[in-house]
Amino acid sequence: IYALDAVGPIPEELWNLTSLTNLNLAQNYLTGPIPSFIGNLAQMQYLSLGINALSGPLPKELGNLTNLVSLGIGSNKFNGSLPSELGNLAKLEQM
């Protein structure tokens, strides 16, 4: 879904794809928060949400993605501090 001019919130249906390992939603016009349902994607290794208009705090449920190697969240409108649960991401190599 990379750079397809997608508009609006992240589709809730994506959070049911629990075997997904790579999700690239970068360079779109996505808005709103990252839902806490993101914690359902326990197999995720590569998650790219950069260059959108996502907002709000980063959900603590990102810490459930313990297989995550790369997390791209730059160029959005997030606020608040990084959740301490990100410390659970022992395999994370790039953020």
TrEMBL record:
Keyword field: Leucine-rich repeat, Repeat
Domain of life assignment: Eukaryota
Organism: Aegilops tauschii subsp. strangulata (Goatgrass)
A Gene Ontology cellular-component term: plasma membrane
Protein name, as recorded: Leucine-rich repeat-containing N-terminal plant-type domain-containing protein
Signal peptide start and end residues: none
Ribonucleoprotein in keyword set: no
Alphabetized Gene3D superfamilies for the sequence: Ribonuclease Inhibitor
Organism ancestry: Eukaryota, Viridiplantae, Streptophyta, Embryophyta, Tracheophyta
Record-linked PANTHER family: LEUCINE-RICH REPEAT-CONTAINING PROTEIN DDB_G0281931-RELATED, OS04G0616500 PROTEIN
Short name of one Pfam family: LRR_8
Keyword Repeat applies: yes
